[in-house]
Amino acid sequence: METIIEWMPRVGALLMLLLGLVGFFKPKAFTDSMGIEMTRPDAWSEIRGVFGGMNLGLAIAALILNSPEVYMALGLGWTLVLLARFYSMAKDGMTFKATIPALIIDGGLAVLFLSGLLF
C-alpha cells in the first residue's frame, strides 16, 4: 500500500492541473485576484498561456510520467516561485499580508512536489 508521502506529489499535480484549468478557461479569476487590468486581447492570451497552458502541460506530464525526477523539477520550480515572492517583498515593497495567499499556494505546491525528498 502506498504511503501518504508517495501520493503528495500527485496531489500537487492535481492542484496544478486545477490552477491550469482556471488559468486557461477563466483567466479573469487570476487577473482580478491580483488587481491586474487587461486591456488587449494579446494580454489575455499571455495569461491563458502562462497560467493556463504551462500549468496544464506540466501537470499532465507529471501525472502521466509519475517520476520522482519530474516531481523534483516541479518542486524546484515552485520553490523558486516562492523565493521570487520573498524577493518581491524586499525589492518591490510587497507587504507580507498581501502576499500570504500566494505564499501558501506556492509553498504548498513546493512541499507537495518535494515531499519525497523532505520526508
TrEMBL record:
<feature type="transmembrane region" description="Helical">
    <location>
        <begin position="7"/>
        <end position="25"/>
    </location>
</feature>
<keyword id="KW-0812">Transmembrane</keyword>
<feature type="transmembrane region" description="Helical">
    <location>
        <begin position="100"/>
        <end position="118"/>
    </location>
</feature>
<feature type="transmembrane region" description="Helical">
    <location>
        <begin position="70"/>
        <end position="88"/>
    </location>
</feature>
<dbReference type="Pfam" id="PF14248">
    <property type="entry name" value="DUF4345"/>
</dbReference>
<keyword id="KW-1133">Transmembrane helix</keyword>
<protein>
    <submittedName>
        <fullName>DUF4345 domain-containing protein</fullName>
    </submittedName>
</protein>
<dbReference type="InterPro" id="IPR025597">
    <property type="entry name" value="DUF4345"/>
</dbReference>
<feature type="transmembrane region" description="Helical">
    <location>
        <begin position="46"/>
        <end position="64"/>
    </location>
</feature>
<keyword id="KW-0472">Membrane</keyword>
